[in-house]
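FW: tagging you since you asked about this chain on Friday. Here's the raw sequence from the shared folder, copied in full. Didn't touch anything.
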Amino acid sequence: SLELTASLGMACAPQHGREPEALLRAANLATLEAKAAGRDTLRAFDPALLERAERRDMLREAFVAALAAGELELHVQPQLDRRTGLLDGGEALIRWHSPRLGRWVPPPEILAAAGEAGLLPELDLWVLRSAAALQKSWLGMPGAPPRLGINISSVTLHDPRFAQQLCAVLEAEGLPAEALEIEIPEDLAVRDLPGVA
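HL: got it, structure written out here
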């Protein structure tokens, strides 16, 4: 036997759209909302869905331009050894002040925009290269963190080319492997232990 479920989105003419394209977009947005809510869900179109979709579109377009224009920044959060109080490492964090949007964009929005644009691997590679170059510039400096941690998305960790890219970046910078720490997202570790290994 096969159990079938459905998530339905509904839009009504003329209040949700007079033209076929507008009506279909409204129904599609309502369907996406229904899918996000779970199985066997019906959602009617709400104008707030269109506003959110337009904000996501604007954010995605701004992110694509920002990645190409070099607007992203890498900030480092220090990690201290609790026993000694000395700097034990650092975590590289993405920061982005968008001139187009006129605001700082928080990391969850950056990651969502990169995911929607299909640019998570490019973003991860940018973070990897930037962090490796930064860590290389600190090697041998007194008080510099001995290692720098970076977050890598599940998409990139599943890419069989990632290990080669990582090795190439370390080699290009002349950076020892122990100077860089790849952080595995908790949700991936729980879902895919063999893949993480």
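FW: The helical segments are 20-37, 47-69, 107-116, 120-138, 154-157, 162-173, 186-191, 193-196.
HL: agreed, and The mean pLDDT is 89.
FW: great, closing this out.
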